[in-house]
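INTERNAL AUDIT FORM
Audit reference: QA-55
Scope: verify that the stored structure record matches its stored sequence.
Auditor: D.O.
Record contents follow.
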Amino acid sequence: MAVYTEVGDEELEAFLAEYDIGTVVSCKGIAEGVENSNYLLQTDRNTFILTLYEKRVREEDLPFFIALMDHLAGKGLSCPTPVHGKDGEALRRLADRPAAIISFLQGMWVRKPTPQHCHGLGQALAEFHLAGQDFAMQRPNDLSVKGWHTLFADCAERADTVAPGLRDELESELNYLTAHWPGDLPSGVIHADLFPDNVFFLGKTLSGLIDFYFACNDFLAYDIAVCLNAWCFEPDTSFNVTKARLMLQAYRDVRPISSNELQALPLLSRGAALRFLLTRLYDWLNQIEGALVKPKDPIEYLRKIRFHRDVGGPGAYGLD
């Protein structure tokens, strides 16, 4: 949620004329995240998020994301919803970018998640998975195994400039995961990027999920693995088993996890860690001039890969 594309006053005025959301009071860039240009849009009626979709988000995928948010909100899940214009359309163009206005979700993301926050996350993740069961549209996970190979190829030549020996270790990990990746786990719509900055809380109560622009169809347990990586490691990269246990218990109270999913969790967690290492590595090596956000450290996820590689089984995550 950085600002890569500036919007002129006249452009904004013409764009907003297509909606019935009131008169603009302010429109300020939001300097967080790495994917799209986002503005906090305040009118005399309400607060919204104006998003301009940048190059990593393919325009042909946007109808999936917009329809998914509408679907989830219809199922009672607390999440932002697209604002439809006077013509009924939610997607249009602004500053030569695909753009949409999204409702503003109350709450804040937590910088230091506690075990209680992780418990709330587990419940919300399971509710999201159940709510998406009858969503009709399909989108493959472009950042699964095939996508990892593409990212690695783009980064391999310069990987060792980030850390000595990184190229060989990543290649070995990628080859192992490719050979052992499961093919028959329960699947459905997953968020695929449910980091703390995509989960809002009011106090200790979870108020909603945001940023569905990596959502796709894949193993439901892979989404759990993403959350284990994003929520259950401390700043020194030590693993907090209490956070993991509470997150997984809350998830299982809503949606049971099969024995096959449990056994696959260490491997899926390695894969999820590799996915974020590779996208961070790509961003680190291809920084965008003028962006308001510094790329995140990819080596954090190398340490997480090593943790998952060394665990003896799902018991390492606090499971029975």
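Auditor finding: record pair retrieved intact. The chain has nine helices and nine strands.
Action required: none
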